[in-house]
Amino acid sequence: MRHQNRGTQSAQSAQSKRFFAGLAAFAFIVVAAPWLPLEVSAQRGGRGGAPQGPAPAPKAAAPIDISGYWVSLVTDDWRWRMVTPPKGDSLYLPLNPAGRQAADSWDPAKDEAAGEQCRGYGAPSIMHLPGRLHITWEDDSTLKLDADTGTQTRVFRFGAGQPQAAEPSWQGYSIAQWEMDGGGRRGRAPAAPVKHGSLKTVTTRLRPGYFRKNGVPYSANAVLTEYFTTLTDGGIDYLVVTNFLEDPQYLAQPYVRSVQFKRQPDAKGWNPTACSAR
To answer: What pLDDT digit, counting tens, does each position of 23-33 carry?
Structure first.
């Protein structure tokens, strides 16, 4: 019987690993596949087609629904996501010498004294911390993402240009657009209505912080590009977020990673907490 139980557990574990590996592969395909992003206006007839009126607002044109409550699934990097790693632990991160030097000089007491306990909760790191998200439409062209971990709020603006004088902040300034799956050749409308896609956001104007809580840095010039997409398996909705962090000041190359969330039917478990420097 023990052997049978072990065999069952082993099979379940293998199945779980395959599933979450599939989520990661799905995220990679969404970002790396040679699909041509089709903006909403491209669906209005293509080159030579008759115009059919103004394009719908981003909320109405959404190819996926990411609104609602989501809980993070910590399926990898447990030792770096569930607890704050020790000082100097920058394993698997593409830091350059300046980045390593900065990480090795991390002093949480100094951050606390300066009132900067939220340095590890900025846009490049908040999605990777365990917790819950609440995503809502603020208006027809603005998505708002609240994270209960660190009580942080991100705002994604459709149709916005680069800010001229926006004050740097932990969550920065994010420009958003929908990207549609498939679509055929450039300049031609898809043969059938697009039924799926992803949300692309680009975030700048960041206040310097940590993308790993133990002092691994990103600078004020960092650029964060993210892709949010969804999939459904067994009647359960999942949100997959893949991000690219570019920061020549501290990184030898862009840092790429993805995380997954599971949809919740309500706010159960929602627990806003304060930032912690440790």
So the answer is: 555 555 555 44
What is the mean predicted confidence (pLDDT) over 217-238? 98
**Contacts for 122 with CB less than 8 Å, ≥ 6 apart:** 170, 171, 172, 206, 207, 209, 210, 211, 218
Which pLDDT does position 191 carry in this prediction?
Answer: 53
CA-wise closest residue to 257 among 19, 64, 75: 75
Instruction: Record the tokens describing residue 143, joined without a space.
Output: 């998505």
Element (H, E) at 216: strand 216-218
Q: How many Å is the maximal CA-CA distance in the chain?
A: 70
Instruction: Give the Cα separation of 241 and 228 in Å (integer).
Output: 5
Closest CA to 155 of 124, 222, 223, 201: 201
**What's the rounded mean pLDDT across residues 191-215?**
90
For residue 32, give every residue at least 6 positions away whose Cβ sits within 8 Å of its Cβ, in sequence order, or none.
none
Give yes or no for a contact between 235 and 262, defined as CB atoms under 8 angstroms apart: no
Distances (CA, A) of 217 to 189, 221, 247, 275: 43, 12, 10, 17
Using one digit for the tens of pLDDT, what is the confidence trace for 214-227?
A: 999 999 999 999 99
